[in-house]
Amino acid sequence: MDKHVRGQVLARLRDLYCTVLYVLVPMGDRWSRLVSRWENQELIAYGLRPARQYSVTGKPLYLYQYDIYDYKLTPDWLNSKYWANPHRWDKERW
Q: Whole-prediction pTM value?
């Protein structure tokens, strides 16, 4: 598979089939036989976070993870306690 197709498979796994996803990625120039190399920023753009780094015969291998339950936490300001709360409409002026 080329890199574009691998990216589509990764996005489909993340969006439709997995709540938790782990990806083990060989990165760096030492993996010379690989056709396409992933960069850290590309995997972060897919919503993956670096979890661990390994070394196989002196070559870097990275483990990335995606977990839908801690991917994006709801910020405090989005809580109805702070806005759109009918009990506070007469108490504060926005």
A: 0.71
